[in-house]
Design a protein that fits this description.
The complex is a heterodimer. Chain A is α/β, with parallel strands linked by helices. Chain A is built from 14 helices and 15 strands. In chain A, the strands form 4 sheets. A 7-stranded mixed beta sheet of chain A has the order 2-8-7-6-5-3-4, with helices on both faces. Chain B has 2 domains: 255 residues, Type I PLP-dependent aspartate aminotransferase-like (Major domain) (Aspartate Aminotransferase, domain 2), CATH 3.40.640.10; 122 residues, Aspartate Aminotransferase, domain 1 (Alpha-Beta Complex). Classes of the chains: A alpha/beta, B alpha/beta.
């Protein structure tokens, strides 16, 4: 049955060796009074039937739209080699590399991932991954509290609503104060900014970094990894902790996960960083190898005094990100970023003409995403745009991030000029509510 | 005899060392709109120093790295407490369906797009219902993204419950045999942690437990069977006593594989729990993740669940915010593509198949225990469930420690069991075969263990050099920590 290989004869042989007459005997430690009598779990099915069922469920999700949905999660091109290599079962059926000699593949990949993240961000040290961009913001916040001994977290206006909500949930019992603002004071543990901002704006936070350091606070920058193909890095700005949602580096959108929490820090803070870290070392014969290091920070050693409770992380997603970054390479990542930016600017330009019914809200520069105000309710317009084959973007009012006509639109390298032209024309028509 | 992994042992360069200027591994279509640039002050000074490689360079590098690794597909991997069962390929195929993998999560953020993701919402709804039924819980949320994240969700729920009732409770009781994540999660939820000692038989005794229990106690986190592989005989009585002081019972689902279809945490008296989909429900461990740690609750905690909940109204799936929600554990619905795999796994096995899982997981662990009990000292006298724990203390007296036994196993082609955990057992060897291993795979492993036990008597020193077959020998961990080199920049 299922994936159990044991034949009847073997089962009897094994029971014999154990000295148990039957399988039930093995469950004697469970008191009779609490044994399961019945449950409503449907009967099993063949692989063929289940694959058919799953295809039908997947088919009830509508794909095939030309999409401008972003909001922190982006539809980038993923080369086939990412899937092919990450699907090697020596990687995906292994677990945490507790035994380094038979896990050098995992450990070297983590070391290379950490290196790639440092090269991307201009930071000194990265960990092996956290769950996602939101939990990475939370871990950066608690790390700031550990380093500064202060308990005020300042959320910059650029920080998006999902990250704010997750930060609030995760810190609910930690006696921290979460404040909105754009400047630190002497009580501040850290200021958390997002670049590009949730609403798309790009800024240089170098001055804010200096202000933070002048009053003993840290600057946490949540970045978009693809944007660092061209944008100023957290390291160049003077950030102390850089975090990101790593989805855009070769991970499918997957309706919310698994994703990748990226974290990189200045060297001075590495021993306060949560999560696993791979480090290089040597064996007795002088051969280079890799191990999990600084484990005294972690829960399996420190228990309630650990830097974090994280155990399982997103190592396979980190491997995908590394493979993506290696395929794209130095020039390729710049190309992807430049194309996203150019195509978004092209679309934005369509609305920056006299008489447009779509008003661009960002006065500041943007990268691949910008907000607009439509002349009627954005959800109504989005509904009509579905009828034209477009997912027009993210209406902001339902998220509490804008007014009724506000819509956030993202553009990736996958969109063509023709799609942008058709989309802009359709949105102009639908913006003011005339049905056509 | 099972085949042993063939190691690729030649020197491995770093991927950065393979870089050759001008090589490209990915090309885009030429830009079909005008190039646009941002102000210099907003741009990085130099491109990121990523390697420049052809696609084949990248493929060779990572293929070779994979050959320096073992997984469940390569060899027997009896890592105790981790449930390293076979990960069915069918689950990978269904998770790759474009209707799942390509689906944008913000389609769930605004009502206008809900018709576009009805299939995904149906799957979330059904998976949550099935998990609840399997564990005897009232409801489940898929949001937590790993086991420890599920624990955190669980203790946050306990905290919210007591805050709502105005209970001034500040302590969580946790047995000394628990995973380190339990106390670490409780600390993040703002609780003090009090450790409850296990008795000499490896289980919690009711009288010792009651000594620790008072009005301050907000909750009790138990793993059952515990990390000694033993079912806690007093679990229901512990739950009753805890409930008398309004302390809630947390079930750590790490060892659910031992009891699935035999008894349910909800029926044992637990109020809240997490599942490890990557342990019990066959989803891959991915070198350390992604896992998935759904949280389940009974009626008491239902109003506090993470938001949003997927609900069915007039045959359409939509969302609700629980009345007293703790908020968002995840941006959306947790590791959705892991839930897709687990759902397919459950639908393949069905109720009877899931019962067979626990039966054979327990059968296999007891078989290994029976074959090794003369050569290795059993850590406890009781009946083991899905994993068996030995102590290598007698071997250690002859100079061969648990770590030496582990390294000897690597040379014999096996992934070692968990060693030095649980912390309550000296020189611990914790062996969890899972239900998917064949008798001959376990026999080969036991033969290797017996050969090593024999070597301890005849030539203990030979084990100190192990492993000698792998790409590298034992690595200097002190050097790694002291001369920290965690990135090649």
């Amino acid at each position: 049955m299922g994936w159990i290989p044991t034949a009847d004869a073997e089962r009897f042989e094994m029971l014999d060796a154990i000295g148990a007459p039957d399988l039930d005997t093995l469950f004697e430690p469970i008191p009779e009074s609490v044994r399961l009598k019945s449950w409503e779990v449907p009967p099993g099915q063949s692989e063929m039937a289940v694959r058919d069922l799953m295809a039908r469920i997947a088919g009830r999700n509508t794909a095939g739209y030309v999409s401008f949905l972003g909001g922190g999660y982006y539809d980038h091109f993923i080369p086939a080699a990412v899937d092919a290599l990450a699907s090697r079962s020596e990687f995906y059926t292994a677990y945490t590399p507790y035994q380094p000699e038979c896990s050098q593949g995992t450990l070297q990949a983590i070391y290379e991932y950490q290196s790639a993240v440092c090269r991307l961000t201009g930071m000194d040290c990265a960990n092996a991954s956290l769950y996602d961009g939101g939990t990475a913001v939370f871990e950066a916040a608690t790390m700031s509290i550990r380093i500064t001994g202060r308990r005020r977290l300042v959320c910059h206006p650029s920080l998006g609503p999902l990250y704010r909500a997750m930060l609030k949930t995760h810190t609910a019992n930690l006696e921290v104060e979460i404040a909105d603002g754009d400047a630190p004071d002497s009580e501040t543990a850290c200021v958390i900014v997002q670049n590009p901002a949730f609403l798309g704006g790009v800024a240089d936070y170098s001055v804010l970094a200096r202000e933070c350091h002048a009053c003993g606070a840290l600057l946490v920058v949540s970045f978009n990894p693809v944007s660092l193909g061209i944008l100023k890095t957290p390291g160049e700005m003077g950030a102390d902790i850089a975090v990101a949602e790593g989805q855009s580096l070769g991970l499918p959108l997957g309706f919310g996960g698994p994703y990748l929490g990226v974290m990189a820090v200045r060297k001075a803070h590495v021993r306060k960083m949560p999560g696993r870290i791979a480090g290089a070392t040597r064996d007795a014969r002088g051969r280079r190898g890799f191990v999990l290091t600084l484990q005294a920070r972690e829960q399996h050693i420190r228990r309630e005094k650990a830097m974090s409770n994280i155990c399982s992380n997103e190592a396979l997603c980190a491997l995908r990100a590394l493979i993506y970054l290696c395929l794209a390479g130095k020039e390729g990542l710049r190309d992807v970023a430049a194309q996203c930016h150019a195509k978004a600017e092209y679309l934005k330009g369509k609305f920056m003409v006299p008489g447009s019914h779509v008003t661009v809200l960002n006065a500041e520069p943007t990268f691949n995403e910008f907000a607009v105000r439509l002349e009627s309710d954005a959800s109504d317009v989005a509904d009509r745009m579905l009828g034209r084959g477009f997912v027009a973007g993210l209406p902001l009012a339902p998220l509490g991030a804008g007014e009724s006509g506000d819509l956030l639109m993202a553009v990736t390298e996958k969109r063509t000029r023709k799609e942008l032209d058709d989309f802009a024309a359709a949105l102009e028509k639908e913006s003011h509510g005339t049905r056509v | 005899m099972i085949s042993r992994p063939r190691w690729r042992r030649n020197r491995m360069e770093l991927v950065f060392d393979r870089s050759r200027p001008g090589r490209r591994g990915m090309l885009l279509d030429p830009l079909d709109v005008p190039l646009s640039s941002l102000p210099d002050g907003l741009c990085r000074r130099e491109p990121a120093a990523l390697p420049e490689l052809s696609e084949l360079d990248v493929v060779r590098h990572f293929t070779r790295l994979s050959q320096r690794n073992v997984g469940v597909d390569s060899t027997f991997y009896p890592l105790g407490s981790c449930t390293m069962k076979y990960n069915p390929k069918m689950a990978e195929a269904v998770a790759g369906l474009s209707g799942f993998a390509g689906l944008h999560p913000h389609l769930s953020s605004v009502p206008v797009y809900e018709p576009c993701c009805q299939g995904a919402l149906a799957l979330i709804y059904d998976t949550e219902r099935l998990l609840a039924e399997i564990a005897g819980m009232r409801a489940v949320s898929l949001q937590p993204m790993a086991g420890a994240h599920g624990e955190l969700a669980g203790v946050l729920l306990i905290a919210a419950y007591h805050r709502d009732k105005g209970n001034g409770k500040d302590t969580i009781l946790i047995p000394d045999s628990a995973h380190g994540t339990n106390p670490a999660s409780a600390a993040i939820a703002g609780f003090k942690v009090q450790s409850v000692p296990s008795g000499p038989d490896g289980t919690i005794h009711l009288d010792r437990f009651i000594e620790s229990l008072d009005e301050r106690v907000a909750g009790v986190m138990l793993t059952c069977p515990n990390t000694h592989g033993l079912f806690e005989p007093e679990v229901s009585a512990i739950a009753d006593r805890a409930h008398e002081v309004d302390a809630l019972m947390y079930y750590d689902g790490a060892n659910l594989n031992a009891i699935i279809g035999k008894c349910r945490p909800g029926d044992l008296g637990f109020d809240v729990m997490h599942f490890n989909l990557h342990k019990t429900f066959g989803t891959p461990h991915g070198m350390g993740g992604p896992g998935s740690g759904p949280v389940g609750v009974n009626d008491r905690l239902l109003p506090f669940l993470p938001t949003p909940r997927v609900v069915l109204k007039n045959d359409i799936f939509t969302f609700e915010t629980p009345e007293k929600t703790i908020g968002k554990m995840a941006p959306f619905f947790g590791n959705f593509l892991i839930a897709v795999r687990a759902y397919a796994y459950i639908r393949c096995l069905g109720g009877e198949g899931l019962k067979a899982v626990s039966e054979h997981a327990v059968l296999n662990a007891n078989y290994i225990w029976a074959r090794l009990r003369d050569a290795y000292q059993s850590a406890f006298d009781g009946r083991f469930m899905h994993e068996c724990v030995f102590t290598a203390s007698p071997q250690a007296e002859r100079g061969v420690h648990a770590i030496d036994i582990a390294k000897g196993l690597i040379d014999r082609g096996f992934h070692p069991p968990t060693i030095y955990f649980p912390l309550t057992v000296k020189e611990s060897l914790m062996i969890e075969p899972t239900e998917t291993e064949s008798k001959e795979a376990m026999d080969a492993f036991c033969d290797a263990m017996l050969e090593i036990a024999d070597l301890v008597l005849r030539d203990p020193d030979s084990l100190h050099a192990a492993p000698v077959t792998t790409p590298v020998g034992r690595l200097d961990e002190v050097k790694a920590a002291r001369e920290l080199d965690c990135a090649c920049i």
